[in-house]
Amino acid sequence: MNFLANINVLWGHILIDELARAGVREVVVSPGSRSTPLTLAANAHPDIRAINVIDERSAGFLALGLAMATERPVVLICTSGSAVSNYHPAISEARQSRVGLIVLSADRPEWLREAGAPQAMRQDQLFGPHTVWFHELAQPEADRLKLRYVRSTADKAVAMSERGPVHLNVSFRKPLEATEVPRDAPDGVRDLELGTPEVAGRADRQPWVRVLGSAQSDSAPVLRALANAERPLVTVGADWKARRWRPFVAWLKQLGYAVWAEAQSGVVGNVARLDASVQPDLVVHLGRAPIDWPAQRWMNSLECELIFVGPDDSHGLENPEHLASTWLRLRGLRPRRKDLEIIQNFQPQEEFSKNPKPKALESNKDTKEIPQFPHPNEQQRKIWISNETNHLTQTEGVPTFFDGAIHSALHALDPSTAIFVSSSMPFRDFENFGPKGRDVFVNRGLNGIDGVLSSAFGVAAARVPDGSRPGVVAVVGDVAFSHDASALLTARRAGISAIVVVINNGGGRIFEFLPVKGQAGFQEHFNTEPSIDLQALALAYGAGYARVTAQKPLENELQKRQDQPGIHLIEAVVDWESSIATRRSILEARAGLSSVRVATPVHAGSVRVAPWAITALHGFSGTRADWRVIEPYLGPIEALNLPGHEGKSGVETWDQAIEDLAQELRSQDRPVLIGYSMGGRLALGLASTYPELISGLVTIGARAGLPESERGARAQEDEARATAVERDLHGFMREWARLPLLNLRPAHPARAPGRVAHSGEGLASALRALGPARQPLYDVKLKVPALFVAGELDKVYCEAAREMAETLGAKAAVVANAGHAAHLDEPEATAAIISEFLEQL
């Protein structure tokens, strides 16, 4: 067959060929005209067994039996019209039984549908909820991007079929047979050549997109890929779920890898920008496709292997240019001890031992094996690219108050403050000028302005449910604000508190950047300045109001209002023309800077078994197992028992406990010490007395000590509890879990009676020797870096953490939606905060 006869024949060949590369071996075909390109391709493919069945209903069940017996997906091909409806019974059974059937239903082109053409019916979503994925393939077109799209869609269909049936609707316009047409005809293939990889496929019969991974959080495939490259780069897309990767990304940077992250991801990279100077030989992209324009252009221009890491769902592979060579379907990425051994003891793995090199998209003959680089222990692993960030985000020296300065002002916020950024220019300016490593939310999916304010208020309601202070700072344009201004009533009725910074820039003028500028109707329909009196609107809705025209006053307003309940509108007025000019000059100056540098090399053989060694102390009545919930995010944790817990002998005095703890730590290599509650107070005591034994301190729900006036009453209280726990351990534990101080949820692990692994006598001795009344007051600045963490719902300890940070020269952080035991309430969020601190040690 001449596959270049016309685009329909080529389209069918590519689709069937890629399905075969992805593992399909059986195709059940029912006769029909519209499906001719698919039928001919299946019949001609050397790796495909094509079985002809006249009745589509019978064909469906035959394919079902084939798929069950072979444990491989089976393809069904039929013509348009009612033929495809006859698959419904078999598709329903396949969905229930999780059997992989892939329906390729041929169809009329869209202009013949609902226009009276024979055998034309609505075939989209025909099987409703009985398929795990439906996709309408684009109209066949002789375009290399479109051919890559067909191949990647076929690979995705096979991957999705692991969970049940998939339906691809394929429309063809005539001619349907292998009939030659002029090369310049719309149905021809014009300048395509048989040797291009889009037509011929990747070399060595590999699928266009290899689908690997599992439903688990397994970092091994990513590390094998990184270890097999000389200039690897990890990129992180804007995704509200990307915060789960903070610990893993911090781990990679500790190992000496280069990381770029969009600001909206909440992840902090060590590569500030992507431009022509950044030329990796491998890109591993985490999460959603980039929304930053320069990053999009940079990624689309790459001629190296692209590995996309995403969840196991229908939106997992976000690769608009269809250049990805591998899709790793992973729920998450977590640093683990055994994974580091992949880097230290690397041997090339088959799945990443061959790779289309830069010219592979031009010709198959240029595909070649990756050179096998030396063992990392014999070669210094280094961050091969890095660049400076300060000039990107700080705008104090800029005389004009422009849009970017509004985002730069967000640096003044408490790091725990959630930020919601509107679509259009705001999220692009936030990328260039906003703070990194924050919890950032954006309606990124469809990039529209619909419901921006309401979405921001939803974030606020989740972050601070009682509305006692603003749960979010939202930065929205004036058009987006006017589109959803009624949300102010929603917030007032629901008792939601938030700060809304409205950029009053005459409508933003984003269309000034697009080709439509200057055309008829541009001024009337694209430059739509809302002209709203925001002060009057704030008064009508009972909201606070301020108007600013410079960055410093904006910072002052943000700091003043971030602890005040209610809705606060801050109108930031900028001139759109000067703002555009200022933004352009800053970005052009940045592009002209040659700030690329090679960072200090990191020898892989010298990397510790974990990026940081961690020792942890649990709280009163807790156990070492309590730390397991954050270990997946931070790596291995050496958990120690407190005196009197789990059979460990008690102590008589606070000082004795500190001495015993110091003795245990002397056998370790200056770990970071983390402590919760009683364990946090002991950790603080150790850090104050023996700072040389640790490299950093983290406390959760701890205090620096009681004033002398409160010690007597607290000593009596602890003695009463010690007596109670000696008398009835289980009864005491039930009552202890109900204490308002702990703020434990009904499903909290500490409420489970079966977790008691202690004796009443042991816990009583701990209370008598280590209660708050026995702890000295620590008020001298620490000699080690420290972070004091508290749960947002634990108001007393939130204030204590802030006071300790100020007094002891440390940092404080608040975990949203968490109580006293923040690490048990919100382990992922707590681990993310801790990992950011560890990253700076």
TrEMBL record:
Start and end residues of each Thiamine pyrophosphate enzyme N-terminal TPP-binding domain: 12-122
Keywords for this protein: Lyase, Magnesium, Manganese, Menaquinone biosynthesis, Metal-binding, Thiamine pyrophosphate, Transferase
Cofactor: binding comment: Binds 1 thiamine pyrophosphate per subunit.
Residue spans of biased composition, Basic and acidic residues class: 351-369
Residue ranges of domain Thiamine pyrophosphate enzyme TPP-binding in the record: 442-571
Domain called AB hydrolase-1: residue spans: 617-832
Metal-binding among keywords: yes
Cofactor(s) required, per the database record: thiamine diphosphate; Mg(2+); Mn(2+)
Catalyzed reactions per annotation: isochorismate + 2-oxoglutarate + H(+) = 5-enolpyruvoyl-6-hydroxy-2-succinyl-cyclohex-3-ene-1-carboxylate + CO2
Example GO biological process: menaquinone biosynthetic process
Subunit structure: Homodimer.
Stated family: Belongs to the TPP enzyme family. MenD subfamily.
Protein name per UniProt: 2-succinyl-5-enolpyruvyl-6-hydroxy-3-cyclohexene-1-carboxylate synthase
Source species of the chain: Microvenator marinus
Organism placement in taxonomy: Bacteria, Deltaproteobacteria, Bradymonadales, Microvenatoraceae, Microvenator
